[in-house]
What we know:
The protein is an alpha+beta fold. It contains three helices and three strands, in the order αααβββ. Strands 1-2-3 form a three-stranded antiparallel β-sheet, with no helix packed on it. The chain is rod-shaped.
Amino acid sequence: MKTVAAFVILAGVVLLFSTAEVLVAFSGFAYYVIGAGVVLLIISQLIGNKDRIGLHRYVRLERDAEIPAMYWYRCQRCNKKKKAASIA
C-alpha cells in the first residue's frame, strides 16, 4: 500500500511539472493527486505499524557464562535477544 501511495504522489508530481499540451490541462488536478497520495501514505503507516512504533525496551536476563561483564538482554516488544556489556 505504501508503494501505491508513492506512485500516486509521483504521478501527481509528474502532472504538476508536465509541459506537454495533453497533460497541461491536468496541472490543477495534480495537487489533488499529490494530496490523495500523502493521505494514503499516512493511513498505510498508521495501519501497518501498530506494534512497531517506538523504541526497543530491553530487560536484563542473565550474565554470560564466558565473560562476566556481559549480560543477555531481551526486548519486551519484539523478543529480540542481544548480548552487551553492562556498566551498571
